[in-house]
Amino acid sequence: MQLLLIDFPAFKPIALEIGPFAIRWYALAYISGIVFGWLYARSLLKNERLWGGPAPISLVQIDDFILWVTLGIILGGRTGYVLFYNLPFFIEYPAAIFKLWEGGMSFHGGFLGCVVAVMWFAYRNGISILSLGDITTAVAPVGLLLGRIANFVNGELWGRATDPELPWAIIFPKDPTQLPRHPSQLYEAGMEGILLFIVLAIMVRFGALKRPGMILGAFILIYGLSRIAGEHFREPDAQLGFLWGGLTMGMLLSIPMLIVGLILIVLAVRRGAPKPAGAIR
Known about the structure:
- With 281 residues, the chain is mainly alpha-helical.
- It is built from 9 helices and 4 strands.
- The model has no long low-confidence stretch (mean pLDDT 88).
């Protein structure tokens, strides 16, 4: 019944335009995610109770790290999209790699870019890689939430076709088939953004930051599970389609995350919380 379909909101791709200067929703989501994540990270570092003493990372260091992680997200995200999702096209049109305003970013590539940034920055500043990874991933769901909402606003990365009688089914204007589809961007925003943020925030409040690697492992594991679940409702990229056994590229890239996340959690539990200075040993 077509009456049950939700009309897709008439969003403009540009959020703010002043003369020749324009900010798109997608760029605004990245900027806002980084800013809010940075503010949240600072608040966690100021709370010594969460760390069992002074945080292993200073406020000055986290301020400096913002540039590093931003470059990791952008360079890694774009590189991941080129390699994982559309390599033949970019081999034929290499100049298109630099056209970031046309879209095309990979979370898994961006995550690997962040890993490199964390390891490099931690090594250069003599701080714990695991603790820096913990604070980075504790705030990451904020950016993931805003990014998925931006995907929805742009009418991209829509879901698989569904029953027209589904009350929240949507016909996306850019979809050539004009079929009713799942708003999978919002499903992913709920799982990768809201749910993941809440779970990690609860873990932080119960002392997970005292065990280096715990939050990092939980983030990797829960994101992998959420992404695999979300891929069941998301339409695969047209140039790739379904892969082996009905799997998608997003699923395949998320499977190793389950293993790595579980290993990090087990190691964090076995390692235990570091003893405060002056404690009886």
